[in-house]
Amino acid sequence: MKYTVYFLLTILLFISCKKTPEKALSTYTPLRGNITQKAMVVSAREEASKIGTEIMKKGGNAFDAMVATEMALAVAYPFAGSLGGGGFMVYRKADGETGALDYREKAPLAATKDMYLDENGEVVSEKSQVGALAIGVPGTIAGIFAVHKKFGTLPIEEILTPVVALANRGFVITEKQKLRFDHFKDLFIEVNKDTILFANSFNTGDTLKNKQLAITLERIIKNGASEFYTGETGKKLVNRVQEYGGIITMEDLAKYEAKWREPVRFTYNDLSIISMSPPSSGGVCLAQIMKMIEPYDLSKYGHNQTKTIQVITEAERRAYADRSFYLGDPDFTKIPIDTLIGEPYLQERMADFSFEKATLSSAINCGMIPGYESDETTHYSIVDQFGNAISVTITLNGAYGSKLYAPEIGTFLNNEMDDFSAKPGVPNMFGLIGAEANAIAPEKRMLSSMTPTIVEKEGKFWMSVGTPGGSTIITSVLQTILNVKEFGMTMQDAVNAPRFHHQWLPDVVVFEPNLFDTAILDSLRQKGYKIDEETSKIIGKVDGILVLPDGTLEGGADRRGDDTAVGF
Length: 568
Ligand code: DON
What we know:
It is built from 19 helices and 21 strands. By secondary structure, it is α+β, with helices and mostly antiparallel strands. It has a domain at about 40-170 and about 210-265 and about 370-565: Gamma-glutamyltranspeptidase, small (S) subunit (Glutamine Phosphoribosylpyrophosphate, subunit 1, domain 1, 4-Layer Sandwich). The longest helix is centred in the middle third of the chain and has 21 residues, at about 305-325. Bound molecules: 6-diazenyl-5-OXO-L-norleucine. 6-diazenyl-5-OXO-L-norleucine (DON) binds near residues 377, 470 and 473. 6-diazenyl-5-OXO-L-norleucine binds near residues 376 and 469. Keywords: Acyltransferase, Glutathione biosynthesis, Hydrolase, Transferase, Zymogen. InterPro entries: GGT_bact, GGT_lsub, GGT_peptidase, GGT_ssub_C, Ntn_hydrolases_N. Belongs to the gamma-glutamyltransferase family.
């Protein structure tokens, strides 16, 4: 319970709590994000966006820049960037080829279905959220090396040397980072039974060097991914985890591999959307929601107006109900993706929707599919000067993951095991409910909500977008795409605009506080919607890149964080 409170507070601290209400649209002058001619990186930290951009300036492509950006985030954004987590990448090459990489963590070989239940069969959520037992086998290093092997053009040494330099030289602590470090200091010390680098008292503007991470990265430059999975770094990781009661072994590390997957692809009016496939629920849920709302004229209803909120909420309700039942690791669970995102099924799903009153979540279950047998995070987008585009979301799950730090490596380790369904019907830290499809099993990947997404318009690359935010990731990506497509916003306004979220259960619609018209919220209440303006100060922290009609790139770096768009 204590840790759940920590988590909620994290969400509050996650970003600034700017309270400036949106200006009335009629008086509003659109805000354009950074505009560049050829290439751009938008990420949670300026240092990471700059390092990725420098790699492209040297002639590297978006994939080279991905490797550098991801590792720079491990240095400068330990809240979610690390060597001890995992992620997903969706790409679209200049020639139109699309694909996806899954470097999600997986359950250790010794994991069991009931490993987080007590003797009475009740979930002990602390165990899946904090400390060594919460850690899934990390995928990050396998991920960046898989990308480099397939698409990289510069030597790994050239790509990672600037990151080593950043770790040695240090990064400047922002105000938001200082608040987060202060907030977690005691928990870091409690979980690690000792102080750690990030448990020092910092002031805004201090420089934080991570020499140990620099040394680890140098070993990785020399020995490649095997340094992490079978070498000295792996041994240091396993020793640390086992010393603190975890179950990850060298065999787990040796067996880990990143997997190339077919992304989910669907259309929404004249857009073609490419998003992450299972083991993320992101692409499937996004497709379901967008296909369910496609018949409605949102641009006529208006941005964040009653009817728009109703249609989106009702589509979200139905998609998240399906998520909880059907989705899990595709290597373990048969997922009827084509049916789930097919128009006949989704039309049927929305058939009982009425503008008159809210559907109750208790009246919605997963849809019936004939013939089917049951069986804290960060995002960055990159576009290069060659026309390649990528969209990457990575995570340690909660803030600083399990809070267990590996001092000899210089990184935090994830608490991704909480993304499994520890027991059918019992919500995880994001309130998400799961069933057999997402039950724990050795070597299984836990279901994610991460939704790195690429959008094409008229057959050409148009947008790369994604966000952190747990269960709110899917709905934040959705609203950002709609903000540009339906409501004509700039990329920057689209990521800044106030957001709301619904996920079937609990049966509430969460709104960012004080940013929505009270008359609209009242009209929703009258129709039976439960409105919650308390739970989340912010929903998502979206980063994206949009191609403007003249071919230049506009970055959208969310005002809710320290996010920055850099390019040339
Ligand atoms: O994969 C997932 O869906 C979660 N582990 C993401 C966690 C997250 O976004 C945390 N940020 N608030």
